[in-house]
Request: fold
Amino acid sequence: MERKQHQNGRAGLRALASGGGSMCLEQTVSGDDTPYPYEVIKESADFLLSRTKLRPKIGVICGSGLGALAEQLEDRDIFPYDTIPNFPVSTVAGHAGRMVIGTLDGVAVMCMQGRFHSYEGYPLWKCAMPVRVMKLMGVDQLLVTNAAGGINRQFNIGDIMIIKDHINMQGFAGDSPLRGRNDERYGPRFPAMNNAYDRTLRQKTLELVKELGLQDVVREGVYVMLGGPTYETVAELNLLRVVGVDAVGMSTVPEVVVARHCGMRVFAFSLITNMCIIEYETEAKASHTEVIETATMRQKDLQKLARLIIKIMSEDGYEAGDE
Ligand SMILES: O=P(O)(O)O[C@@H]1C[C@H](O)[C@@H](CO)O1
Ligand SMILES: Nc1nc2[nH]cnc2c(=O)[nH]1
Reply:
């Protein structure tokens, strides 16, 4: 049953966080270079906690065209992003821009129906700030999904790639959602990033996809995030192939880095919405229309897979620090 759509958020510390406030916060929050302080994130978390009875321990981030999972939740509380204090807003087609808190098969889940991308003009820390909000609300396991272009020639459009590792290309260039003063309340200055994508969750999922009849379309591979909004040139794709990338997208890595920094257990998958074009002699072009069309077409199977992963997560009952 749909419960309510919240309309009346407060700007809260937003003015303060963007430099419009007073006191010492003003000195520490000077603009897009500096991640929101703990108190600002807590204000967003407290806002949501005070307006839902549910206490989700599992978070989900829906990629381009993949937001229909949020429609499957029962007993939903819905918060458009522009009603949540300090939240950015979604500007991309296929990203509804709402936080949906509800239950799926009896498990409390909070689901971002749409995410934030660097190409929208957001710094990486802001793309990932909802993960910290989830953390302060009690979430300790995160399912991240995205639409991606297939680079691995064994892949087909519509395949689902379980992410086993990523290449943080922006990190190579000195940018990171963790750039700036480290707040030890989240995690250490230098977090490890091997096994970022939980091995047990990946193994269990791979064992169980047969029950869903998805064994022929589920793969594992390496994801790279580029800044976008351009799709790749042929030369760029050839480079990515050489360094072992299986799928390319424009998201996910900042969210996973921030989630791992604060001790969350992470599972992520890419829907291969298009095969990257690696021939020069062609009129074909990558397009967001194709991305959304494939996502819409594969909606049902993605929901089945997400339900399975959420079931595995809830049965495992992970808590931060368990590894
Ligand atoms: O939010 P995701 O990563 O799923 O969306 C991908 C990357 C771009 O936002 C868009 C390009 O078509 O799809
Ligand atoms: N960078 C990138 N992002 C995508 N998202 C969906 N498809 C693609 C793609 O081919 N390239």
User: Anything to note?
Assistant: Residues 2-316 form a domain with the Rossmann fold fold (CATH 3.40.50.1580). The pocket of guanine (ligand 2) is lined by residues 147-149, 226, 228, 231-232, 248-250, 273-274, 276, 286, 291 (CB under 6 Å). The chain has one domain: 2-316.
